[in-house]
Amino acid sequence: MRDIDEIGELLRPLARITPDEPGGRAGGARARALFADIVAQDRDATTTAARDAMTTVALPRRPHGWRTGRGRRALLGLAASAVLALGVVLGPGLAGAGATSYANSAVEIHEEAGTYVARIKDPYADQREFSEAFRALGLDVELNVIPVSPSAVGEIVRMGGSAETPLNVPYGARKEPADCDLADRGCFMVVTVPAAIKGTPGVLRFELGRPAKPGESYENDWQSVTRPGEPLAGVKVSGRTVEDVLAEVRKRGLAAEFRLVVVHEGGYEVKPLAADEVGDDWIVFKVTPAREGVVTLEVTAERQGGLEYAD
Amino acid sequence: MSADTHRFEAVYKATYDQITAYAGRRCDSPQDAADVVADTFTVVWRRIDELPPGAEARLWVYGVARNVLADHRRGALRRRARHRDLDAEMADLYGDPADHRVERSAIAQAFRTLPDDDRELLALVAWEGLDRAEIATMLGLSRNAVRIRLHRARRRFSRALDEADVRRTLTDTVVPVGRSL
C-alpha cells in the first residue's frame, strides 16, 4: 500500500489549482465585491439600490442567541441550527395578510406594481413602529433606523435574514424626491421590498441609516471614515503611525478616541482603550466614525502580520 | 454591534484564498465554484456567532464549504445572483482546457473510481495540506476515526492504481518533510 506522502505526490498534480497556489486574492477587487455583497454594508450595494430599486444582493443574517462555542460542536450543529432557526422565525404569526397599505406615525407603506414602498415619516420614531407596519401587511420585515455617519445616511447599511430567508431579495433604498436633503421637510427616506416576499418563510432585517442627533453615537462604527463623504475621505491611514494619523485628524478639526485591535488566528476583535495608553508610534489599522467630530482609531502597539492593512 | 462584521472580515480575508482553491479543485465549472465560494461565505456570515476562535476557525470554514459543496452537488442550492467578477476570476483559474491533460491520466482515472468520502479525505491531505487532527476537527470526527478512514482510502486508492497499472515511479522523488500521517 502506498504511504500518504507518495499519495500526496501522485495527487498534487491533479489539483486544478495547485496546492501552493492561492485560489483567489482576498484583497482583490473581486473578493472585496463579494464581501461587500455579503455584509451588504457597502456603498456599492446601497447606492446601486438607490438608483435601481431592483438591485439584487446577497442576504446575510446576523444571528442572535444560540451561541455554540466549540468548533466541532458548531460544525455538527449546522443542520440542527437550521431547524432551530426555523422555529424562531416561524414564531411570530403574520396577521392581516390581505391588506395592501398601512400607516402609523412612523412609516407609511403601500403596494405599487408588485413592490411594497415604505416611506419613513419619522426616522426617530420608536423602532417597533416600523416593524409593526410591515407585519400589519403580512410582511415579516424588521426595519431598524439607526444613527450613522454622513456617508451612510439614507442607505441600508446592513441587511440580514434568517436561515430560511431567500438568499436573493431585490430591495431598494432611495430618497423622495430624488437627491433631496433629509434636513428639509418633505424629503423622505424610502425602502422598497418586493411583494413576492409576502408569505415566504424567514424574517428580513434592514438597518437604514438616519442622521445622528447632536452627540449621538454612530452605529455604523465598522465602516471606514476614509470612504467618500466622510471626514478623512481618500486619506491613507491604515498602517501609518498614530502620530501621523492624529495629525490628519486634528488638521480637520476632529477629535480621536481609540480602540485596541486584538488579533488572534482567524480573526480579531476591538477592545476599549484609553488615550493615555496609546503611544505615538503605535500603528493604526482602521479609522471608524464614533460621533460627530470624533473618530475612532483602531490601533495596535506594533505592526501585526495577521492584519491586512488597506491600501 | 460591529464585532460581528470585524470577525467576519477577518475570517473572510484569512480564508478566502483557501476556500476559492478548495471550491476550484472540486467543481467542474468556474460558475459552480464561484457559487460555492459565495454561498460558503454567506453561511459563514450567517453563522458568525458559531465561528470557533483560533486555528479552528479556518477548519470550520472548510467544513462549511464542504457542506455547501455537498448541497450544491445535490442541486439543493437555490441559484443565486451571479457574481460575474468572481466567475471571471474562477475562469482565470481554470485556465486553458488544453492544459488539462493530467485529468485524463491513469492516476486521475484511478482517483475518480474512489468513493466520494475517500477522494475528499485524500484531497484534504494532498491539496489542502491538512493533517489528521485538522481533518478530524473539520469533519467533526475523532482522530482515530480519521486515521482509520484515511487508511482505508489509501488502501483503496493503492488498489485502484495497481489495477490501472500505475507504477511507483515517484518513490525517488523528493518528498516534502514535516507531514506525518
From TrEMBL, chain A:
Keyword Membrane: yes
TM region(s), chain numbering: 74-95
Organism the protein comes from: Nonomuraea roseoviolacea subsp. carminata
Identification of the protein by name: DUF4179 domain-containing protein
Keywords carried by this UniProt record: Membrane, Transmembrane, Transmembrane helix
UniProtKB/TrEMBL annotation, chain B:
The keyword ATP-binding is assigned to this record: no
Location of the RNA polymerase sigma factor 70 region 4 type domain: 106-156
Top-level taxon of the source organism: Bacteria
Keywords from the UniProt entry: DNA-binding, Sigma factor, Transcription, Transcription regulation
Pfam families registered for this protein in UniProt: Sigma70_r2, Sigma70_r4_2
Keyword Transcription (UniProt): yes
InterPro entries: RNA_pol_sigma-70-like (IPR039425), RNA_pol_sigma-70_dom (IPR014284), RNA_pol_sigma70_r2 (IPR007627), RNA_pol_sigma70_r4_t2 (IPR013249), RNA_pol_sigma_r2 (IPR013325), RNA_pol_sigma_r3/r4-like (IPR013324), WH-like_DNA-bd_sf (IPR036388)
Residues annotated as domain RNA polymerase sigma-70 region: 12-76
Family: Belongs to the sigma-70 factor family. ECF subfamily.
Protein name: RNA polymerase sigma-70 factor (ECF subfamily)
Lineage of the organism: Bacteria, Bacillati, Actinomycetota, Actinomycetes, Streptosporangiales
